[in-house]
Automatic annotation (TrEMBL):
It comes from the Eukaryota. One of its GO terms (molecular function) is nucleic acid binding. This is Uncharacterized transposon-derived protein F54H12.3. Residues 73-152 form the Integrase catalytic domain. The lineage of its organism: Eukaryota, Metazoa, Ecdysozoa, Arthropoda, Chelicerata. One of its GO terms (biological process) is DNA integration. PROSITE patterns: INTEGRASE (PS50994). Pfam families: rve (PF00665).
């Protein structure tokens, strides 16, 4: 009797995998190449079984985004130009194509998400200071937040 129940369970497992595979790889099906929830709901196969199936499929595991979970400090801003966050983007490899401009000073207003960019040829404190002076002609922030780069 126990062997018979085991055979039924094994047959059910094979049937679930067949249904999952047929649905997942069927381009005409809206659940094809999708996520766990959608495939589970469409096929009516339990969530955990669907998750287990997808983790063994190359298209799903190769293209699934990686989730990074770590604590982030809250950034609060109470109005426009209250807080700007700044950093340099390194484009050394494109310098010869951009008339010698090898860096971008990026400035984002935290409240409005308005971005400003200034092209720089050198990554010196003097060059960054001049870029900030040009930006301050448009608007002035109450606070500026940067990383610990030597250019700041």
């Amino acid at each position: 009797m126990a062997a018979h129940a085991s055979e039924e369970t094994e047959e059910q497992e094979k049937e679930m995998e067949r249904v999952l595979k047929a649905t997942y790889y069927d381009f005409a099906n809206p659940a094809s190449f999708g996520g766990i929830k959608k495939l589970s709901k469409t096929t009516k196969v339990p969530y955990e079984k669907t998750k287990q199936f997808l983790s063994s499929q190359d298209p799903y595991s190769l293209h699934k985004g990686v989730r990074y979970k770590f604590l982030r400090r809250a950034t609060l801003s109470y109005g426009i130009n209250e807080l700007w966050q700044c950093d340099l983007v390194d484009l050394k490899h494109l310098g010869k194509h951009n008339n010698g401009f090898r860096y971008l000073l990026t400035v984002i207003d935290v409240f409005s998400k308005y971005a400003r960019v200034s092209a720089l040829k050198m990554k010196t404190a003097e060059a960054v200071k001049n870029a900030f002076e040009n930006l301050f002609q448009q608007a002035k922030p109450n606070n500026i937040q940067t990383d610990k780069g030597s250019e700041f």
